[in-house]
Structures are given as structure tokens and as C-alpha cells.
Write a structure and sequence with these properties.
It is built from 2 helices and 4 strands, in the order αββαββ. It is α+β, with helices and mostly antiparallel strands. The chain has a single domain, classed as Histidine kinase-like ATPase, C-terminal domain (Heat Shock Protein 90). A 4-stranded antiparallel sheet has the order 1-2-4-3. Its EC number is 2.7.13.3.
């Protein structure tokens, strides 16, 4: 399931990154409240998603108005479900260093 989620997120990032753009994947561990989590961040420098719509894009068939014909609106819903089934979470964050978006996956150590 993790492979499916990561593949879909990287494909989305490549689609939305500007031509010749870079997609960054960062893997690291964090410790919080004496438990460790694996973190995977996938970032692009595309147009991003407005903050008010970030939770909505994980709903089935939801599409932003600026992406006609880009798909069925199922990709991120499938990603969220896969991450949830393995005990993790996913959030979308705007980049602090310019345009783009980062998908942040957190998986507790006891889930892997």
C-alpha cells in the first residue's frame, strides 16, 4: 500500500511541477512523545493547492477548478486510504520557500 501511495504522489508531483522542475523526496525519522515515526515528504514547485482545499482533495471525486481533464478525482483519495490502512497520516503543506506543495506522510514505527 505504501508503494502505491508513494507512486501516486510522485506522479502527481511530476505532473504539477513546472517543465524541467524538480520533485524532491525526503525520508527521515522523528521522535515525538517517546515514539518514533518514519516521515516521507514529497515536494514540487507547481501551482500548489489553496490551503482551504487541502483537506478536500482527499475526498473521492473532488477536483480543483483549475485542473480540468486532469483525472477522476480519485488519486489522492486512494493515497489517503492506503496511508490510513497502514496506520499513517498524510497532510499537504505549502512550501515556505516559494510556490509548490509538500505531501507529508508520517508512519509510526510500530506500523513497519
Amino acid at each position: 500500500m505504501l508503494e502505491t501511495a508513494l507512486s501516486a504522489l510522485m506522479e502527481n508531483a511530476m505532473i504539477h511541477a513546472a517543465s524541467g522542475g524538480i520533485v524532491e523526496v525526503r525520508l527521515y525519522a522523528i521522535e515525538q512523545d517517546s515514539s518514533q515515526s518514519l516521515c516521507i515528504d514529497i515536494s514540487d514547485r507547481g501551482p500548489g493547492i489553496p490551503e482551504a482545499s487541502r483537506a478536500d482533495v482527499f475526498r473521492r471525486f473532488y477536483q480543483l477548478g483549475n485542473t480540468p481533464g486532469m483525472g477522476s478525482g480519485l488519486g489522492l483519495a486512494i493515497v489517503a486510504r492506503a496511508i490510513d490502512r497502514i496506520g499513517g497520516t498524510i497532510e499537504l503543506e505549502g512550501r515556505s520557500d516559494g510556490p509548490g506543495l509538500t505531501a507529508c506522510i508520517r508512519i509510526p514505527r510500530d506500523c513497519f
